[in-house]
Design brief:
Layout: E1 19-23, H1 27-35, E2 42-47, E3 51-53, H2 58-62, E4 72-74, H3 75-78, E5 85-89, E6 92-96, E7 101-104, E8 107-110, E9 113-116, E10 120-122, H4 128-133, H5 140-157, H6 163-170, E11 172-175, H7 179-199, E12 210-213, H8 225-237, E13 241-243, E14 248-251, E15 255-258, E16 261-265, E17 269-271, E18 275-277, E19 294-296, E20 308-310, E21 315-317, H9 330-349, E22 363-366, E23 372-375, E24 380-382, H10 384-397, H11 401-417, H12 436-439
Helix pairs in contact: 1-9, 5-6
Length: 443
């Protein structure tokens, strides 16, 4: 960041309204901005991308089931015609709570209320070797990279004569037994069982291992016993090797080293083992919990930092029903954004704020084609009905009629044909050094 300290963010409309600056256009930040649209606030939404990313479907981009544009939505389009909402693509650096000023790589901006909704990034638990060689999946760009890597590996493998020498290219290891890891493993198994053998008939896919590794004793930790057992049974039925109570010690790009177990050969280690909150400069260390989340009160206000709020994955709100904070899922961020919308209006009107109360709407995960598990507050079920429920819920959550239509058509075609049509290896062209910051994404 060069001279961001010296000049304000340009071309921000003048306004006498209270200025709400929102950092991050994920589920929480975007919901808050949309709820404040046409209200008596000036809203400035900042994000390092100019689109909203629907994270629950990243794994389908990674496994060639959906195109990236189907799960991404331009932020500027959302706010067409909104006179009080302004979007800027910028990288946030730090803020000064004493003077209520936020600094970005495009300049600074003063705020009345600052809302931090930056989400979380991949957690490698301190392993530099894994961070260097594994493939995370926290952005559309990373999901597309995984798709390219998998397809590239098989294009290379078909040109290798000895089956033994192809092992590391064909094997796929996924670390993390949460919804992302389970869904990724199921989708990879579907590809291995029904699609890749048609693309590469010269390769023996019985020799291809798909391994899902979980450090804990069971998959889908927060879900019901029935869902955990069904997910394990479904994955094993698809031919996925599930390794529970297994720790990954190291990965060098070719060999996954495990604690007390034999290593696994692979050039594709997909890391879905955990998340860590993104951080911003300007807060004292006492504001952070040991896991990196920000302490907030029942109104989402950051501890000892007036008029600064945190939503979603980065916030830790300790309540009687949630002594360790709320789960780091989209519904928490969305509901906190709704509550904060109402409270900001109450503050301006001089009324009493209302404390946040989380309503658990349930959880679900898909485990390959026609297989899923669903836990709702009033019922739990698995199998094909759960799969259709999963499809409907996620389709309705996608922004934009066009995106809904494209995803519905893709899913319908994949269901009828067993043949997703997006197995394209589109390599990005080398970027000039002068354009790297503008056109590439940092790891």
């Amino acid at each position: 960041m060069s001279d961001y300290l010296s000049h304000p963010l340009p071309n921000i409309p003048d306004s006498n309204l209270p200025k709400v600056v929102i950092v991050g256009a994920g589920f929480g930040g975007l919901k808050l901005a949309m709820n404040l649209r046409n209200k008596q606030f000036q809203v400035i939404l900042l994000d390092k991308h100019n689109f909203h990313q629907f994270q629950p479907l990243f794994y389908q981009v990674a496994t060639a089931g959906l195109e990236p544009s189907a799960i991404s939505f331009p932020l500027r389009k959302i706010f067409h015609g909104s006179k009080n909402v302004t979007f800027r693509m910028a990288q946030v650096d730090h803020f000064d709570p004493a003077i209520k000023r936020l600094y970005t790589d495009m300049g600074y901006i003063d705020y009345t209320y600052l809302v931090l909704a930056m989400g979380a990034d991949t957690n490698y638990f301190g392993s530099k070797s894994i961070e260097e060689a594994a493939s995370p999946m926290k952005t559309v760009s990373e999901a597309l990279y995984i798709r390219n890597k998998i397809i590239s590996n098989y294009e290379r493998a078909i040109n290798i004569e000895k089956a033994e020498d192809r092992k590391s290219l064909m094997n796929v290891v996924i670390v993390g037994g949460g919804p992302t890891g389970v869904e990724l493993a199921g989708a990879m198994a579907d590809l291995r069982n029904t699609v890749l053998p048609k693309d590469y008939p010269e390769l023996n896919f019985h020799n291809m291992k798909i391994v899902l590794i979980e450090a804990g004793p069971e998959l889908l930790g927060p879900m019901s016993k029935e869902s955990k057992e069904s997910a394990l049974k479904y994955l094993q039925g698809l031919g996925v090797e599930v390794m529970l109570n297994t720790l990954v010690k190291n990965y060098d790009g070719n060999l996954v080293s495990l604690a007390d177990k034999d290593p696994i050969e692979t050039q594709t280690l997909l890391w879905a083992a955990g998340i860590k909150p993104n951080r911003i400069g300007g807060l004292e260390e006492e504001s952070y919990a040991p896991n990196g989340r920000l302490f907030v009160d029942d109104f989402s206000e950051v501890k000892d930092c007036p008029d600064v709020y945190a939503l979603g994955d980065i916030s830790l709100m300790v309540q009687e029903d949630f002594p360790r904070g709320h789960p780091q899922v989209a519904q928490v961020a969305i509901q906190q954004a709704v509550c904060l919308t109402n409270n900001l209006q109450k503050i301006v009107a001089g009324k009493e704020k209302k404390a946040f109360r989380y309503k658990d709407l349930g959880s679900m995960a898909t485990v390959g084609r026609k297989l899923a598990v669903v836990d709702l507050p009033f019922v739990k079920f698995q199998g094909i009905l759960a799969w259709f429920t999963w499809l409907f819920v996620h389709l309705m959550a996608i922004l934009g009629v066009k995106n809904k239509l494209f995803i519905f058509l893709d899913w319908s075609w994949n269901y009828l044909s067993f043949d997703p049509s997006l197995r394209l290896l589109i390599k990005p062209k080398a970027v000039r050094p002068s354009e790297q910051k503008a056109l590439t994404e940092e790891r």
